[in-house]
Amino acid sequence: MERSNSWFRWWRKKAREGQGQGGRPRHGEKVVVDGSEIRELVEDREAFGMLVDTKFRQLDADGDGMLSVGDLRPAVADIGAALGLPAEGASPNADHVCSEVVSELTHGTSQGEVSKAEFQEALSDILLGMAAGLKRDPLVILRMDGEDLRDFAAGSRYEPTAAAVFSQVVDLGSEVASPRQCVLAALQKLSVDHGVPPASDAWVAKHIVEPALQQLLPADQPGQQPASRDDLFQQLKKLLGAVADRLQEQPVIVAHTENHYDGSGVKRLLANKFELDKLLDSVWKNLAAEDKNKASKGCLITALDKMADAASLPYYSAVKEVDAVVEESIKTAGVEEGKAVDEAEFKKSLTEILRAIMLRLNDSPVFVSTDVVVHEPLSGTSSSVN
To answer: Most buried residue, 64, 105, 172, 186, by most Cβ within 10 Å?
Structure first.
């Protein structure tokens, strides 16, 4: 294992020297993970060959020269962590591509085992798939050490933001009656934009939020009177200071992504008839025979996923708000479940569905922001936030 770690450190150093980025971010810095290092790794035949040899020997415990398909995921997770990628969940599109490749390999391998050559090919496909997902939806790696939070609490944004979040807390009624509950609920509505790491994360709640809250507001008292607006403002400000102190002692690394789906990507695709026709031809050509004989909602969703990149849409199941738009648009197309369709009908239906998606997103755009706490080391080092 030490040999593998040394190799990863060498690769990471090489990547940093070549691109001028990577590694653990310092205060005020944002590291953008866009998959470029992964692509560079796969394209470097010598380096990638070294990686395949090392990982294959580690995973082939019985030395029979074969691995189970299930061994691929831990191998990818190990490599991803060494390259500075957060765990699954931080990039839905990258996760989707990775799952699709593993799924296809599983169905295509009758014995559920792969040789070293198949392992190398599969690993290349998965890593390039992850890189494609990250190129489309880059991760911004933030190091939260309390400085941004102090700036927010002391700045002009604090009072209007506090007023907004407390107005939402009041709407919760009796469920948030005590000052302690009120202040905690307000904290949970703040985000990385304010310098607060995700309070819903179990590690952040246990090591950052709860100790800070216990320091200021130990526990609710029976018959405790509701606090005034000014008291709540001051208590929240004190809590933010206590959280900043904890973050200074134990900085938290957060992977941040945000996407705005307004239908503009679909509009560009529909306006480019050459690209649209080429894409529709490809989708129809690669459609399973049973799907051509019996059209279904699942078949249409699969086809839309193959067009997602060109239409700047998320893969199905990655963003529930967009999933709802897709499902309503499929209903609008009026494709009869289980009815046999020919090529012309299928392409027409897909085009109508895309147009319906475009109109719905244009009327009601979907904005998605995701923050995931990184609990494994970045840059292949031994340090960690947990």
So the answer is: 186
Q: How many CA atoms lie within 13 A of 147 on its CB side?
A: 9
Query: Partners of 114 in the beta sheet?
Result: 67
Task: Answer yes or no: are the C-beta atoms of 359 and 263 closer than 8 Å.
Answer: yes
Bridging pattern class, strands 67-68 and 139-144 = unpaired
User: What would the two tokens of residue 4 be?
Assistant: 């593998």
- Does 261 score more than 90 pLDDT? yes
CA–CA distances in Å: residue 117 to residues 56, 114, 122: 10, 8, 9
The pTM assigned to this predicted structure is 0.66
> How far is the C-alpha of 277 from the C-alpha of 314, rounded, in Å?
21
Q: How many Cβ atoms are within 10 Å of 243's Cβ, its own excluded?
A: 29
**Which tokens sit at 274?**
């050459």
Q: Please, are residues 257 and 137 in contact by the beta-carbon 8 Å criterion?
A: yes
Beta bridge partners of 113: 68
The more confident residue out of 222 and 236 is 236
Rounded to whole angstroms, how far apart are CA atoms 83 and 9?
9
Residue range 238-258: mean pLDDT, rounded: 92
285 with 66: CB under 8 angstroms?
Answer: no
Count Cα neighbours of 98 within 13 Å in the Cβ-side half-sphere: 23
Identify the three-state secondary structure at position 23.
coil
Assign 114 to helix, strand or coil: strand
* Mean pLDDT of the residues in the chain: 78
pLDDT of residue 17: 43
CB proximity list for 150: less than 8 A, separation 6 or greater:
195, 240, 241, 244
Please choose, from the candidates 116, 115, 131, 119, the residue with its C-alpha nearest in 3D space to the C-alpha of residue 80.
131
